Every structure is written in structure tokens, then in C-alpha cells.
């Protein structure tokens, strides 16, 4: 009988130990106070805190991301912004040829085909300098479009510039 009690005691202790180990693991999967701090501290190191916070907090993946993950989220924002701008450019092109519009189309194509791909690959393979370069180039392309075709694309160009410089600043933190 004492062997039975000893076995029950060991089983009880083992279950208690497993429970104590699993509670912090469960808690850490559901509550991320350090992730909120990481987003805020990262965004404070960018030239536009509000833009940074807006996009990172709106993406559910940011709650589990490290700095590289935050940079990748922002590269994806660049991609989305460039796609939106290119769609507007194509709509404007249907209204006829306008000086500078083809240049803007080329700029936003360069962002999508070159800069986004460069930044994504650089971040995934641990070479953040090229991610900084890609993001900075996206800002330059948006500025170029604004210079070549001011007016109807100003909101898209300014948004792209802001997102791109924030992305570059986050990637620069990885250097």
C-alpha cells in the first residue's frame, strides 16, 4: 500500500510541476507587454512616430514581431501603398496622356519590382543595409513622382515618402 501512495505522490508532483511550467508559457502567448514596448520604442526612433504606430499597431503580426519583423511589416506597407498609387496612375492614364504620369508609373513600378523585393530579401537574409537602401529609394521615387506630376498623386506620394522613411529608420536599427 505504501508503494501505491508513493506512486500517487510522484504523479501528483509531476502534474504540479508540469502545471507550473505551462502557466508562464500560456501567459506569454496571450499577453505581450514587452511587444507593446518594442513597438513604441522602435517608433520613437523613426522620423514619424505617428505613421509608425498607425501601421504597426494595425497589423496583428506586430504583437509577436522582433525589430526585423516590424521592418518587414513596414516593407509590406510600402508594397500596399505603391500598389494603390499605381492603380490610381493607371486610372489617370485612361483619361489620356499627361506629362509626368508615365514617369510616375515607372517610379512606382520600380518600388514594387525593385525596392520592395530588395528590402524584403535583405531583411530575411540578415543584410539590413540593403533594406535601408531599398526603403530610402522608395522615398526618392515618390519624391520624383511628386516633382514630375504634382497634384493628383500628392496624397499617395506623401504617404509613400512617410512610410518609406519610417521603414528605412527601422531597418537602420538592425545595422
UniProtKB/TrEMBL annotation:
Alphabetical list of CDD domains matching this protein: CIF_like
Assigned keywords, A-Z: Disulfide bond, Signal
Annotated Pfam families: PMEI
GO molecular function, one term: enzyme inhibitor activity
Signal peptide: 1-28
SUPFAM superfamilies to which the protein is assigned, alphabetical: Plant invertase/pectin methylesterase inhibitor
UniProt-listed InterPro entries: C/VIF1, Invertase/methylesterase_inhib, Pectinesterase_inhib_dom
Location of the Pectinesterase inhibitor domain: 34-170
NCBIfam families the record matches: PME_inhib (TIGR01614)
Family: Belongs to the PMEI family.
Official protein name in the record: Pectinesterase inhibitor domain-containing protein
Organism in which the protein naturally occurs: Crotalaria pallida (Smooth rattlebox)
Lineage summary: Eukaryota, Viridiplantae, Streptophyta, Embryophyta, Tracheophyta
Amino acid at each position: 500500500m505504501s508503494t501505491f501512495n508513493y506512486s500517487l505522490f510522484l504523479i501528483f508532483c509531476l502534474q504540479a510541476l508540469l502545471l507550473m511550467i505551462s502557466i508562464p508559457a500560456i501567459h506569454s502567448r496571450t499577453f505581450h507587454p514587452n511587444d507593446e514596448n518594442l513597438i513604441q520604442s522602435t517608433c520613437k526612433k523613426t522620423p514619424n512616430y505617428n505613421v509608425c504606430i498607425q501601421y504597426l499597431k494595425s497589423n496583428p503580426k506586430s504583437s509577436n514581431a522582433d525589430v526585423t519583423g516590424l521592418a518587414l511589416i513596414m516593407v509590406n506597407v510600402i508594397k500596399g501603398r505603391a500598389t494603390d498609387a499605381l492603380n490610381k496612375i493607371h486610372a489617370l492614364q485612361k483619361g489620356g496622356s499627361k506629362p509626368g504620369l508615365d514617369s510616375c508609373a515607372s517610379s512606382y513600378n520600380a518600388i514594387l519590382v525593385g525596392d520592395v523585393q530588395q528590402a524584403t530579401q535583405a531583411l530575411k537574409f540578415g543584410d539590413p543595409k540593403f533594406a535601408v537602401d531599398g526603403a530610402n529609394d522608395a522615398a526618392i521615387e515618390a519624391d520624383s513622382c511628386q516633382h514630375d506630376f504634382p497634384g493628383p498623386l500628392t496624397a499617395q506620394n506623401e504617404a509613400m515618402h512617410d512610410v518609406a522613411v519610417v521603414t528605412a529608420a527601422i531597418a537602420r536599427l538592425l545595422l
